[in-house]
Design brief:
alpha/beta; 7-stranded mixed sheet; Aspartate Aminotransferase, domain 2; binds pyridoxal-5'-phosphate
Length: 375
């Protein structure tokens, strides 16, 4: 048992009541009243034309790749410093991945490297809102417009963050958000696809509904439903949707609480940053973040290991993050060498994440800062 665990799943206290209502409704399988309710809450919150709940962010990314019509012969640019399914969702379409560097300061996708890797085969970009922070979307849009590229926003960690006033998940035509229990809000497993282009809604609903026009049937637009496209079973059960409704109702309180903890970390760690012990990962200009993650960047991999082991030995579950995809066994099979993306490799080895969840107290933050000061 950790004295201060890295993550404790958020609970509002209303989840069980809502799940019990699913039993009252006798409607378990999905695309029912709670799914509709959660989607409406998200559409209003994000100011998006359509949100479809999915059983994971991975499912939302797979839907997005299908909707973007990526396929064999296409090259899709993305960071290597991301979660596995950012990439596998693309590979499943038959398209190729071109891994790009992260910007060393922000750890977001390096848009200069993106530009340098555009070829006549490039069809799209997957941008990742790492840590709930983001790139300069104005520059990204200019690149996409200039080269006619389709951009998917992997906003797995981004719910509640915004860039220049518009929420993450809504920055490109399609955004994918995660409700995995490690995220600020969750349903155990879960996710959603944010469809910001009205023209894509009908096809998205078909892909979501196992490739059928069942959604149109429910709306009374057709008298029977049938197979229309290659789709899959992408939505969650009503049990997950009910759980999620309870969480979504607490979004503002959750955000406030997390921001308070993030600020407490910032205050406690600033003096140590001043001494040159590490750098605190901060959002880029224009990004108002959701306090999803607090990460430190140490001067060397060795210094990172020493800090992690010292914190772990003293009951604090500090953890590293992604093994870069290009340096993984699968990345090697795709033809990459670890040294191909030196910034990504170095930063993945010098980043350490600290516990951040709604039960972290000021006392915990002060304790962690003292441990780091005594390194
Ligand atoms: C950047 C990123 N993309 C995608 C995912 C996949 O999310 P899920 O577990 O909901 O499928 C994650 C999960 O942590 C992630 O961090």
């Amino acid at each position: 048992m950790w004295q201060i665990p890295f993550n404790v799943p958020f609970l509002t206290g209303s989840e069980q009541k809502y799940v019990n209502e699913v039993f009252d409704n006798m409607e378990f399988s999905g695309n029912g009243p709670f799914t509709n309710k959660a989607q409406k809450i998200l559409e209003e919150y994000l100011d998006a034309p359509k949100v479809l709940l999915t059983h994971s962010c991975t499912a939302a990314l797979e839907m997005a790749a299908m909707l973007a019509e990526f396929g064999p012969g296409d090259e899709i640019l993305m960071p290597s410093f991301t979660f596995v399914t950012t990439a596998s969702s693309i590979l499943r379409t038959g398209a190729e991945i071109v891994f790009c560097e992260i910007d060393p300061e922000s750890m977001q996708l390096d848009l200069n490297d993106v530009k340098s890797k555009i070829s006549n085969k490039t069809k799209g970009i997957v941008v990742v809102d790492y840590a709930g922070f983001c790139v300069d979307f104005q520059i990204l849009r200019e690149i996409c417009d200039e080269y006619n590229l389709f951009c998917i926003e992997d906003a797995a960690q981004g719910l509640g963050s915004s860039w220049n006033g518009a929420l993450l998940g809504t920055q490109t035509k399609l955004g994918a958000i995660s409700f995995h229990q490690t995220k600020n809000l969750h349903s155990g497993l879960g996710g959603c696809l944010v469809i910001n282009d009205r023209k894509m809604v009908e096809k998205a609903e078909i892909i979501w509904e196992r490739g059928t026009n069942r959604s149109a049937f429910f709306k009374g637009l057709v008298d029977k439903y049938s197979w229309q496209e290659v789709g899959s079973s992408f939505y969650p059960s009503e049990l997950q949707a009910a759980f999620l409704c309870a969480q979504l109702e607490a979004i503002d309180d959750n955000l406030l609480a997390r921001k308070r903890i993030w600020k407490a970390y910032l205050e406690a760690l600033k003096p140590l940053e001043g001494k040159g012990l590490f750098r605190i990962l901060k959002p880029t200009q224009g990004c108002n973040h959701n306090a999803h993650l607090i990460a430190l960047l140490f001067p060397s991999p060795e210094a990172t290991d020493i800090a992690r082991i010292h914190l772990n030995n003293n009951g604090v579950q500090a953890v590293i993050h992604y093994v870069p995809l290009h340096a993984s066994p699968m990345g090697r099979r795709l033809g990459y060498l670890p040294t191909d993306l030196p910034e990504t490799l170095h930063h993945s080895k010098t980043l350490l994440r600290l516990p951040l969840h709604n039960q972290v107290t000021q006392k915990d933050v002060d304790y962690i800062a003292t441990l780091l000061d005594n390194l």
